[in-house]
Amino acid sequence: MPMKLSFVDTHCHIHMEEFDQDRDEVIRRARQTGVVAIVTSSITRDGFWRARRIVNSYQGYVHHSLGLDPSIVDFKIAREMMELAEEYYDKIIAIGEVGLDYWRVKDPGLRERQKLIFIEWIKLAKKLDKPIVVHSRSAGKYAIEILLRYSATRVLMHAFDGRPSRAKLGVLNGFYFSIPPSVNYSNQKMKLAKNIPLENLVLETDSPVLAPERGVRNEPANIVYSARKISELKGIELKEVAKATTRNAEELYNMEFTA
Ligand SMILES: [Zn+2]
């Protein structure tokens, strides 16, 4: 019998209500596929409490990353979420997703505020000694610059939407880049998966979005689409992709998922 491969879904939103009807089934399919750990990311205040509940029902399998939607450029809410991160620091495995969204936030004044909040998150991640999961829509280059300026370490650039050249500084500084199942049809993601070294790659699904085909709900079991595409683009075996990305995820989150 072939050895079962292990995958880590380094970023998704499995706590969201899109999964309320069939979450047990979704988790069962993930386990069957070889997904050994799932990191769910809450990005609102309500989402935080929702994720706490879900993480508790799948203890040791679903992990919690606490973030804030970058388009919520509100200092008061950001402050509140940061206080929750401090209070629950031993219940979360990462900060994020946080970051910059220049696609949804276009006003220069609001972008400035978004940047200030992002900087505070970077500082907090360092203070709490947690990795940081970064959202950077239409702002990848700027996000990487800020992360480097504030010497962030253990960084995951999730669903990076820029060219490989824009990712380069991050790659050189040991940042990880996660490849979602949308790599199945997205040329931009294919270029990224092909050009970023395997040492810097991890897998994500970003469920319920970024499915292998447009317009359908995504789920963690679809992680194999990301892995298969990476193996195809790099001309290496699937098991090599599974092994390397799982090891990278363990390094990033400073946890053993396969033990
Ligand atoms: Zn996400």
Chain-wise SSE layout:
Elements: E1 7-12, H1 23-33, E2 35-42, H2 45-57, E3 62-66, H3 75-87, E4 94-101, H4 108-128, E5 132-137, H5 140-149, E6 155-158, H6 164-172, E7 176-179, H7 187-195, E8 201-203, H8 223-234, H9 238-253
Parallel strand pairs: 1-2, 2-3, 3-4, 4-5, 5-6, 6-7, 7-8
The chain binds zinc ion.
Structure description:
- The protein is of the alpha/beta class and 259 residues long.
- It has one domain: Metal-dependent hydrolases (TIM Barrel).
- Helices cover 44% and strands 17% of the residues.
- The protein has 9 helices and 8 strands.
- It has helices at residues 23-33, 45-57, 75-87, 108-128, 140-149, 164-172, 187-195, 223-234, 238-253; strands at residues 7-12, 35-42, 62-66, 94-101, 132-137, 155-158, 176-179, 201-203.
- Strands 1-2-3-4-5-6-7-8 form an 8-stranded parallel sheet.
- Helix 3 (75-87) runs parallel beside helix 4 (108-128), helix 5 (140-149) runs parallel beside helix 6 (164-172) and helix 8 (223-234) crosses helix 9 (238-253).
- The model has no long low-confidence stretch (mean pLDDT 96).
- The structure holds zinc ion.
- Zinc ion is lined by residues 11, 13, 41, 97, 206.
